[in-house]
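User: I'm putting together a teaching handout on how multi-component assemblies are represented. Below are the sequence lines for each component of a complex, exactly as they appear in our records. Could you produce the 3D structure of the whole assembly as structure tokens, so the students can see both representations side by side? Please keep the chain order the same as the input.
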Amino acid sequence: MLSISNLNKSYGRTKVLTDINLDLTANKIYGLLGRNGAGKTTLLKLITSQLLRNSGEIRLDGEEVFENSRALERISLAKELPSSLKEKKAREIFALAGLLYKDWDEEYKDYLVREFNLNTKKKLSKLSTGNQTIVVLIMGLASRSGLTMFDEPTLGLDASVRYKFYNLLLEDYEKHPRTIIISTHLIDEVANLFEEVIILSDQQVALREDVNTLLEKSFYLSGREDLINPIIKEKRIIHRETFGATKIVGIYGYLTAEEKQYLKAQGVELSNIPLQKLFVYLTEGNKEGAI
Amino acid sequence: MEALKRVIRFQNYNLVKSLGTFWLVVLLLNIIASSFVAVRGMSAQIGPMVSDGSYTSFTGSNLLIIFIFFIIYGALMYHEDLAMALSCGVTRKDFYKGAIFSNIIVVLLLSSVQTTLLFIEKITARLLGYPLLTEFGMFNTSTDSYFLVAVILFVLFLALAAITNLIGILQFRWGYKFWIGFGVTLVIILNSAAAQPKDSSRVAILLNYLSNINLMLLTGLVVALMFFTLGYFFIRKTGLSK
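Assistant: Of course. Below is the structure of the complete assembly, with chains in the same order as your input.
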């Protein structure tokens, strides 16, 4: 569906993205992860042509997206609205979005406004940060774009509203499948939504993996050092900590059935590393195992 | 084509409301100013008007207000509309085509309403008894036809719209830095113009130019075309930074 090849972007002399290559398939939910300044927002803005790239190609179903209305009208990016729109009322912003988005669903927008209990008569600047985010989320969901991207969709939202959004997103995704990219820092909360994760680090795509696979090949081993060491010596260690005689080691890689059996027999605790922790370990610069 | 239609609808979403409000305020100013003259005589001149000492026009002063309107219109077109449009998957090319179309619609509406007001004032001035200023350099409402005045104003406003459109783009692209550059350039130009020796032949050339309607209209159209074209070169390389 979306194909990115050799994409480069720099701001002045500062390189933000270097040789990005990605192929995303239709009707999947992707998680775009990366530390602050990793270039996630830049990548999303490049996909929607809001920013100009230095080189490379971005194609949607084979068509170059830049200055191509046929491609761009099928993409939406739900992100913080430009500051110039802060004096507009929420309902006015929805009306304008309805004019611009080809597949805008007015009924669904009304439904979402009710669900989120949003006061659309207020100006954006008078809404709380959370409610401003809700405006953006409604725009993204009601756009019904074939490729819908959310950049930090939970900014300022309390836990209940965040879970409401995740549920609404899934509910709508089941009824109207589309490709969704979510860029977020609250990884564990949305880990269940993701089918694949893309991790940006050091200006590049450092990792792209199916979420289940990723979780299946990352483990915490907790137990006596002398019992753990024979297993981990050939593994990629991404985390180490020690509590007295107990050692906790995080590894990234598969364990064979024999290795698992050995660890169980030795009383070494084995558990999967949560996605958020895994992301932290994999992207911690200068640390062993980091990508 | 569908995408362009959507952009045009988006750009003109509030057009009726904003133009309606604009003319309501302008008309009120015109009415209030002329009412003072009607009640208190020519000595009580209050509000916007143009006068050469002997003759006065209230609706003539609208030209300056329209000039300010265009500056704001050009700035908002890019500051608000472009920012939102780019966020919602509109191409720069479609946005710009739509912007030119919207500018022409606005110019058409402003020039026809302003021409009508200038000609209505001929009647109100007679009724209220004040000497009306009819000579505006480029046209004269007592000797030129309604149609000719409308065409002149259309071309004048179109050139103005093209210039303010470019200003709007440059301001969107460079923000406050543009205004610093603009201010410095303006000061340099004005200073160098002031340093030039007074030359009466230049005034004569200008007067001669103003009397040649065809040349003036052609210049206006060339300026409009030039500035609209120039605007596209800037906008096609503009990104949305915030």
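A couple of points students might notice: The first helix of chain B runs from residue 2 to 11. The interface with chain A takes residues 2-4, 6-7, 9-10, 13, 79-80, 83-94, 236-237, 239-240, 242 of chain B (CB under 8 Å).
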